[in-house]
Amino acid sequence: MIDLLSKFDPLIEQRETLLSTGMTDPFNLVMERVESPTVAICNGQRTILLGTYNYMGMTFDPDVIAAGKKALEDYGSGTTGSRVLNGTYAGHKACEEALRTFYAMDHAMVFATGYQANLGIISTLAGKDDYIILDIDSHASIYDGCALGDANIVPFRHNDVAALEKRLKRVPEGAGKLVVLEGVYSMLGDIAPLKEMVAVAKAAGAMVLVDEAHSMGFIGENGRGVAEAQGVIDDVDFIIGTFSKSVGTVGGFCVSNHPKFEILRLVCRPYVFTASLPPSVVATAATSIAKLMHGADKRAHLWENSRKLHAGLKALGFQLGTETPQSAIIAVIMPNLEQGAAMWEALLHEGLYVNLARPPATPANMTLLRCSLCAEHSAEQVDQILGMFEAAGRATGCID
Ligand SMILES: Cc1ncc(COP(=O)(O)O)c(C=O)c1O
Fold this sequence. Notes:
Aspartate Aminotransferase, domain 1, seven-stranded mixed β-sheet, 14 helices, 18% strand, binds pyridoxal-5'-phosphate
């Protein structure tokens, strides 16, 4: 017998070496209790959360919780069926209506996760003989959507408009083209030059899909994302998003103004061949989305937090993923995995949780401490966070 798991031996060895030092496993931390969007108990210690995607702090919103409880009582714990059979409840329709209103678009389709939304929409739109031109730093769910659809995949250099244009020119005449971009790239927290990229894609006759997972709710005047902030949302054919970040629950979606969009419900396999979201989840999502429409004050406070943390970390001497704060994600670049893991653990001891991100999830083999801010972080918490970074940074030798 060939042990099919032996291909993972190098990873197992690397992991065992790291854990043999007695450090806490950074990829297996338990949130023993969660007190609020910004505080949890980890290893028995009160810990500030700076590594969640809870950008708008909706997980403990009283209206959101009340809607979930009511739906649980009224409709039960699950649908036990696909959206195309018995799994479409009034709540799923209401959730799609909330999305149409939020984005001011004609169509919305809800999936079980954002991962499945990318998997489903990308693979259904672009198949054999079509071309997908995508940023090389695209999320795994985008790559998996490409693989499922069997299209020709053409990556271009991260955020490079000229490279996108060059790749588009090389696509054979008459082939179907889908340009896939993200609003915010989640590893470094940088935003895409969507204005220029969408113009280049449209000039080449391509359709455009933008994944706004990390910008929905926060970026843009109405929280519709980077495409809204850069004034090109009307030129984007499909927007993908998730409920697992600013919306504060779980689920994924695609919104569009394309007149033939509704046919996707019958041909998109990751929509058809899986059970629909529980009624309590779509009820919390719909309530949260409706409230996010009026989240201008929260958005302003989140920008303040982002600017303050970015400036503070820079002043302490940390190397950051972006020159200026561009989103709610601020990535601290570590020299290597060992020092990154040591710093991660030192921060946890201080009472701060951040994400340790490592290759292959990161670009250019970087080890990152990814900080993601929440609109519910107070200014005092951000001060505390900076104090923790200073102490942990000095203790591990990451800063002088
Ligand atoms: C850009 C991007 N798209 C899609 C997803 C998938 O979202 P979900 O958690 O809803 O599966 C993520 C998750 O981190 C993401 O970062």
